[in-house]
Every structure is written in C-alpha cells, then in structure tokens.
Amino acid sequence: MNLIVYLAGQIHDDWREQLKAQAEKRNLPLTFVGPQTDHDRSDQIGEAIIGEQPGDYYRDEAASAINNFRTELLIQKADVVIGLFGEKYRQWNTAMDVTRAISLNKPTIIIRPESLIHPLKELSNKANVTVETIEQALDVLAYVYE
Amino acid sequence: MNLIVYLAGQIHDDWREQLKAQAEKRNLPLTFVGPQTDHDRSDQIGEAIIGEQPGDYYRDEAASAINNFRTELLIQKADVVIGLFGEKYRQWNTAMDVTRAISLNKPTIIIRPESLIHPLKELSNKANVTVETIEQALDVLAYVYE
Amino acid sequence: MNLIVYLAGQIHDDWREQLKAQAEKRNLPLTFVGPQTDHDRSDQIGEAIIGEQPGDYYRDEAASAINNFRTELLIQKADVVIGLFGEKYRQWNTAMDVTRAISLNKPTIIIRPESLIHPLKELSNKANVTVETIEQALDVLAYVYE
Amino acid sequence: MNLIVYLAGQIHDDWREQLKAQAEKRNLPLTFVGPQTDHDRSDQIGEAIIGEQPGDYYRDEAASAINNFRTELLIQKADVVIGLFGEKYRQWNTAMDVTRAISLNKPTIIIRPESLIHPLKELSNKANVTVETIEQALDVLAYVYE
Amino acid sequence: MNLIVYLAGQIHDDWREQLKAQAEKRNLPLTFVGPQTDHDRSDQIGEAIIGEQPGDYYRDEAASAINNFRTELLIQKADVVIGLFGEKYRQWNTAMDVTRAISLNKPTIIIRPESLIHPLKELSNKANVTVETIEQALDVLAYVYE
Amino acid sequence: MNLIVYLAGQIHDDWREQLKAQAEKRNLPLTFVGPQTDHDRSDQIGEAIIGEQPGDYYRDEAASAINNFRTELLIQKADVVIGLFGEKYRQWNTAMDVTRAISLNKPTIIIRPESLIHPLKELSNKANVTVETIEQALDVLAYVYE
Amino acid sequence: MNLIVYLAGQIHDDWREQLKAQAEKRNLPLTFVGPQTDHDRSDQIGEAIIGEQPGDYYRDEAASAINNFRTELLIQKADVVIGLFGEKYRQWNTAMDVTRAISLNKPTIIIRPESLIHPLKELSNKANVTVETIEQALDVLAYVYE
Amino acid sequence: MNLIVYLAGQIHDDWREQLKAQAEKRNLPLTFVGPQTDHDRSDQIGEAIIGEQPGDYYRDEAASAINNFRTELLIQKADVVIGLFGEKYRQWNTAMDVTRAISLNKPTIIIRPESLIHPLKELSNKANVTVETIEQALDVLAYVYE
C-alpha cells in the first residue's frame, strides 16, 4: 500500500532530503510531496507569473495565492501530513498546513525540538503524534506497515 | 502525479485546444476534461436524446439537464478547475462551474482579460488564483510539479 | 416557523424593496438579508476600510474580499436563497451566490425574465425552482406555509 | 441578527477588551467568546484539574487538552472568527484557530501589523479579510449590518 | 426540548391529523411539518404559480420542482422524520423523503402495515425504527422524553 | 476515463443484460455493478448466511441487512447511478437507491415508462436526468465521452 | 451561553444525578440529556412498543433500534458529550456514543477510574479530555465559562 | 473490483489469519489491513519510538497516539470494516473502530458470539450486518461479488 506524504514545514534546510533518503533506505513505499522549497522562487512566484506588482505587499499577495493553490492541491492528495517546526522561524505556514490537514482528517505527525514543546502544545495535542526527530517520524510511518 | 483538469468556460473559440497543445509541449502530466464544446450539439442534446419538445423553453430544459449531468460528473472527477471568461458572453455556466468547484474544495484558477477585473472581482477573490492568459494558468499548474 | 431569505442579484434597482413590501402585505414570517445594495459603497468598501490602493485592480481586490465576507456569512445564515437576474448586467456575483447556496444545500429560487431562459438554462436546472417575477417567488415561499 | 465572534490571538495584552468596548460603543449586536486569556491559568489548567504531572512536558500536555476542548467548542459556536497576530510571539495557536475556522467555513478576519505581512502572507490569503487594526476589523463586521 | 417532526407519506387520508391530535393529548413538545397534503393543490401548484404548461408531463415537472423545494426545506429544518406507507399507493415520494432524511443523518421512523414488510424490508432496515401504527411512532418519540 | 455505473431497479427482467450488451457494442468504458438480481437468492440471503429465522418478518430483516450492505458499498464505489422503474412493482428499493445516490452527489439517471411520469415526478425532478429507454440512458453516458 | 451536555455511560448507579446536582450548585448553565437510565425499561422498550418477540435475540434487536434512535437524536442536539466508564461493565454503548460524538466533532470528555487507563488508552487519546472524577469533568466545563 | 478490508478486534488469537486463509481459498479479491496484532509491540510502541516515559499512564499515552495514527489511516483507506468481539476482553478499541467506520459511512460487519448479543445489541444495530463466525463474514463479502 503506497502512501502519499505531504511534508509541511520550514524550507531553510534540507530536512526533506534527509527524510526521503532515510525512507528510501528503509524501503518504505512512500511518495513525498510538499511546498515549493526554493525560498526565493516561493517569494517571487506571483510576480514571475502575473507580472510586476506595485510594492511588497502586492508581491506577497500574488505569491501567496499561487503557493496556497499548490499546497491545498497536494494536501488533498496526501494520505499523511508531516509538519516540521524548527527553532528559528515563525513558520505560520506550517501551523496552517498542519491544521488544514487535521481538519481534513488526514493523519498528521509533528516534528519539533524539545525547546518548542510549550509554544506548540495545543497544536501538538491536536495532531495525532508528535516526535522530535525525522527518524521518529519515519518510525511512526514504518509502524503502519508492520 | 497525474492531475485531471476541468476546463470551464466559453465554447466559442479554441482556447481549450491551445491550452492542451501548450500543456503537451511542456510535458505536463495533465488529463483535460470539460463541457461539450460543440455549441449546437450542447443546445440540441436534450431533443437529440429525449425527443422533440413543445418549444424553446422545454428544449433548453431538456438540454440543460444532460449538460449538467456531464459537468457535475467531470468536475467531481477533476483535481483542478480552470475557468476562462471572455469579453463577449455572459457565461453564467462558467461562473456556476467555478463556484461549484470552489464549494467542492477543488483548487481553482480563473483566466479573464483585464477588462473583466471589475465585474468578476468577487468570484476572482473566491478562486485560488486569477490570471489573464492561458500561459499563466499553465505556469501555475507547472509550479505544482517544480 | 420564521425563515431567513438571502436575496442575491442585481443592486441597480429596488426589486428587494418591492419583494419585502409584498412579503409584509402577505404576512409571511420572513427575514431578509442580502449583499450591500449601495453600489458605490460596495465598490469602495475596500479602500474605505483598508485605505487607498495603488490602482483600480487593487481597489477591487480589497472591496471584493469584504463583500465576500458579508455574503458568505449571510448565505450560511439563510434558510432559502432567491437570486434575481436582470437583462442588463452580467451579474456573475448572482451566479456565484446561487451556486454557492445550491452547493450548501440551501433551497434556491431563481427569478429571471423570459429573455434569459437560454443563457441561464444550466443554472436554472440546478436551482430548485425558476420563476419570472417577484410575485411568483413569494408564491413559492408562501406555499411552504400552506 | 446577533452574531457570535470568536477572538483568537495573543493573550498578553488587552486587545480583546478594547475591541469589545468599541463594539459596544457602535451598538453592534455581537457576542464575544475566546480562549482563556489569563496566561498563567491557561498554562496551569491541566494540573489544576487533573493534578500534578511529572514534569513540564506532561504539564503542557494536560493543559493543552483542556484549552483545545474550550477552543474547539467555542469556535464551533461562533459565526465569525477574528485572529489577531502581534509582533512579539509565535502564536501558533492563533494560526491553528484561524485555520480551523477557515476549514469549518467560518468567515474569518485576520488583524496583523504591517511588519507581519510577509510571514503571514499565505494564511492571510486563505482568510476572508486581513486588516491592520481592531477598528478595521469592526468596520468589516459593521458592514454586515449596513 | 422542542423537536420538529417532518411527516412524510401518503396524503390521501388524515393520518397526520390523527397523529397530531394524539401528540397533543400526550403533551409532547413537538412541532409538525410536512408536504402539501391537498392532493389537487400539490398537483396543480406548478401551473398555479408559473402558468399553464403544454401538457401533463410539463405540468408535473413544474409542480414537482415546487413540491421538492418545500420538502427539502422542511426536512432540513426537522429533527426527526416519520414516514408512513399505506397499502394502496406506490408512494415513491415517501421512500425519497425517508432516504433523504437518513442520508442527512435525521433519526427516522417508518410506519407501515404488516402487509408491506416484504417490499419495504431494505428501506425499513435503513431507517432507525419501523413500527405499524401511529401510536407506536409516538411511543418512540415519547421515549426520548422519558 | 473508466466509469463505474450502479444499476438500481427491478430484478424481474433482464434489462441490465440488455444495457450492458448495448454499452459493449458502443465500446463505452463502463464497469457495471448493482444489487443481487437473483430474486430468490436476494430474499433468502439472510437465512442462507445467518441461519433459519422464526418467521417471515425475521427472514426479511436478516436478508435486508445483507442486501443493504452490498448496495451501500457498491453505490459508494459508483461514479454514476442509473435507476430503472417498471410498471409492475413498487420498487421502493429503487427509490431508496436513487435518493441515496443523489444525497451522495452521484450523478443519477432515471429510466421510467411514460405511464409513471406522474407518480415519479418528484423523484424525477431530483435526479439529474430522466429518460424512457435504456438506449437513452446510454446516450446520456456516451455524451460524457464526446 | 447555554450548552447541552449528553451524558453517555453506565446506567447502573446515580452518577448522572450527582453530576447534575453539582452542576446546579456551581450555577453552570447546562442542560443535560442522555440515554434511558432505567435499565429494565431500556431492555424492554422494544417489546413494550412493538410487541412480543420470538426470543431474547429479537427482543434485543427491537430494543436496540429504539435506544439508538433516542441516542443519535440527543447526541446530535448536544454541544458536548461526557462519557463515564466504570469498572464493572463492558459498556460498549459508552464507547460507541463517545466515538460517535468524536466523529461528529462534538467536544468530548471521558471519565474513567485509574484502573481503566490501559484498556481505554486509545479511546482516551481520541477524546479531547480524560479525567477521573465527575468533579473534574465539571471543572473542564466550568473552564469554558471563565 | 478489489476491496480493502480493515479487521478490527481482539489481538489475542489468530482469527485474522484464519479469515485471510479462508478468503484466499475462496479467491476473493480482498486486501486486509488492521491494527498492530503483536500485543507487546502495540503496548510498547510509544516508548519504542519516543523514549522512556515517567510511568505506565504516560507509556500508554505515548503508545495510544501511535496506534490511533495507524488505525485512523487504515480505516480511511478501507472499503469495508469487520469488527470481531470475543468473550474475554472489553475490547473498547473494537467498539471505537467499528463506530468510527460507521460514522465514516464504511459498510461494517460485526462478528460476535451468541453470548454477547445482549451487551452488543446497540452497536450491532448500528452496524450493517452482524454474524457469529468468520465464515459468515466472508459469506457476506462474497455476496458482493455474486
């Protein structure tokens, strides 16, 4: 049984590549999808497609519409959502994607460092499972196949 | 990941063929569906199947039921809906198809010329993304595969 | 049993006032809600609340978001939706509101002149009832109380 | 028509009281609900009800369950959700509440300072309306009653 | 706790009046709604509102749209649906109303004579409770208040 | 695009076989499913699986549960539902299956002889399309592939 | 804000009366509903309404349909569900009611003794809050009004 | 037509293996999924993935979250759910899984010994079919393919 996994979360490091590599090593039949991870591309996609906008606010508006189009489409296609929170960023998109997934009844895993236990406690309680590492998230997925 | 795209909108020119041709050039794994685009066939389908009706109103009633059957079925099958509005026609079907798609949580793109910004502003705000050209709509779809 | 009725449709004449007056004469226990009917106010509401925008497109964007907020809220509250189409305007908002209502399973009545039978045939088929006059729409509502 | 408004957002200042006071001045028929705004009470509610826990993580777990119980119940009761983001905090709960409301089709307003346009752009695009001040949020609500 | 009860079923005798009279005797806090029970009015309502039609088929079409408008609206308002089947008629409307109610998760009671056990067995199995008399149906409702 | 079609309706003649044969001749990519069409098997399935029951009523109860299990499962799998009504039987199962399909938003076609126009008028109005012959129902399906 | 609270759980002691008495002392604006708590009445309700059945199995069948009618109706009316598990009984109805409530997105509280932590761990994880005493359940409800 | 069948129920004997073996003998095109059936693994999975917990209660909490993640995911994937209740255990998870499945409109079969008729009567009434043996459950599934 192949599962589609949406990887929500920060796009400032290569955690998705690490996770995919480990999933492959374990031979888990998973297909991964996620948001645009090229940060500049993500910020500029509105102007890149629709053309120059009259200022930053409008540039952000144009980009966000297209990013949300992609995200909503892929979360709907996913069987599972994993959301990773890091220490540096506010990552409201991650909170949005995770809550959207939970509201669509998608089984959801949160990965967050110990330092974020307190600020994420309500979201963590709403998700199905919360872990601290990529390995643990894959352990949870692997458990489905045992 | 193959996506099914429903192409709502006017049936008086060949915009669907242009869009399909460009999608093929870009090698996007998209399957296109849509309403009956032979205008006469669409208007006569009721009488063609059910038999002659006692006047235009009843001819339209008979045709619309069968057109709606097709449209509802294919919108439900679609992953994405693109609705194109042109300047000449009232195209209430397009507005209906786009709103139906949005209500079913289908990610939706509107294509409309600059001249229609004002009359379409509320529908445009409700859709995920609004663009002005077929190329831009395909840019948005291509972005999902980046 | 009091019913809330959302009156979708053109805001260029006083059809809503006529309908309300007739409903009152008939003593129907109906509460009417609807979109902003002051056309200028509706177009300017974005800038009126959020401030000046860099051009017409952005002015429309700002206004449409607030108009949609109002419309979605009131359609959700409504038990019934009546949508009136006139001959002069494209009224895509009316098509949008009527389709939104149908998708939310709200019983829906369309009022349209004979001249619009053909272009509205699919939307008309999707609605519960289509009539030509305000009186007929109230006849349908009155029938619920017989 | 009385509306119930859920006030999501930070609990470190008195913005809710300001908003309620202004709503009262304008005679808007609104009933306000929201999360526990006594920060200490919110953090300690788990231990206060269920008893001492073996460490901070478990204290947070116990508190979050009860906070989520309250929040889910009141968001379901609400007709409208307003979410305010301030500059100081990560406020993932606010992002969660706003996304939950949007997923339940509750018309939603975000209030955020100009400085947060960029990090909130996707969530802002998903909400119905985004404004910068409490006054503007009430302007939007007042518009429903015009 | 007042409950709204929709009374689906044949309109050829006065079973609804009997049921209401007995409910009143028992002081059950129930409000009853249902379809148009004046058979001629029900058959003629289309032409009565929309005007003469070109034949029986179109007369039926016009009437059924308005009858369905009423029925859908009142079933949505109901907390409970009771459907009575008699021996004489095919009563497909009753089967339709009962199935619609079940699909909307409305608790549903069927009343049918012993002679109809066999042809109604699948619908009866789908409903919550099946009884043979009006008294028994009220017994079930009264049980909710014990 | 292959479609699954559920064939609701009477099980006393071979209309399903005729319809399938014609669909094959037209090379329509349709997969057909439906209820148990061996009437005796359908009536006896409860006792056949669960064992002898204390009388006809209980025999019917046992059979109906298993028939409904099959029907619900296959209607959920279907993309389209066709319901055929004949003149001889009350066929409440057909009315139930068609209404269930409509409530699940499955595009639905009714086939019924002219003689049943009147008693089926409300159900017919609720379905997407109503025709009189098997050929016409296949014409409607074929139209989706044009 | 008045809330309706469904009290699922064993009917062999007076825990509901204790809970109601304490709620009254605290002046909480709660209305309580629940299953039939007269055990004999609950077991005999089928035969009491429908008449004698041919054995225990059929007696249970008849009773369960009517009990489920009541339960489904009242859970749908409830804003909150509290489910109490005691040590003596298997109480599958309680597990059913609690899961039904969770599936309907009703905020749900489980009360269970320490001895049942292990067998109830999955259901407890699915509910919003789990406590050990009636007082604690009311503490959670009272927290909503703080 | 291949169907996915979720096997809810006790994990203390090999009933799933027996059922799978018989399904294979009958050549039924069924794919089986279910909960973790290694009891120790199921109880320890929380600590195995997340690390040691401060006591039994927290160990159970950690395990239940991961078990529920698996169960929810696989029930959503399933077309049919079979729940087996044995005489020895309280099996609240089985009641939870079965009720969850019913609430998601999954056709559901309960297998239970005669001795459990009474305590399971309400859940049994809510499921589509109840039988006493594995063979009978497969008979019901086989009937879908007749």
Brief account:
Chains A, B, C, D, E, F, G, H: It comes from Amphibacillus xylanus (strain ATCC 51415 / DSM 6626 / JCM 7361 / LMG 17667 / NBRC 15112 / Ep01). The structure is a homooctamer of 146-residue chains. Chain A is α/β, with parallel strands linked by helices and 146 residues long.
What's the helix and strand layout?
Eight copies of one chain form a homooctamer.
Chain A: E1 3-9, H1 15-25, E2 30-33, H2 39-50, H3 56-77, E3 80-84, H4 92-103, E4 108-111, H5 121-126, E5 129-131, H6 134-145
Parallel strand pairs in A: 1-2, 1-3, 3-4, 4-5
Helix pairs in contact in A: 2-3
Shape of chain A: globular
Measured by DSSP, the beta-strand proportion of chain A falls in 15-25%
CATH topology of the domain at 3-35 and 78-144 in chain A: Rossmann fold
Q: Helix share of residues of chain A? A: 40-55%
Q: Quick one: which chains have the greatest interface?
A: A-D, 33 and 33 residues
Series of H and E elements of chain A: EHEHHEHEHEH
> What oligomeric arrangement do these chains adopt?
homooctamer
State mean pLDDT of chain A (0 to 100 scale). 96
CATH class of the domain at 3-35 and 78-144 in chain A: Alpha Beta
Spatial strand order of the main sheet of chain A: 2-1-3-4-5
Specify the number of helices of chain A. 6
State Rg of chain A: 16 Å
Distance between the termini of chain A: 12 Å
> Which spans of chain A have pLDDT < 50 for at least 5 consecutive residues?
none
CATH architecture of the domain at 3-35 and 78-144 in chain A: 3-Layer(aba) Sandwich
Protein name (chains A, B, C, D, E, F, G, H): YtoQ family protein
Pfam family, one (chains A, B, C, D, E, F, G, H): Nuc_deoxyri_tr3
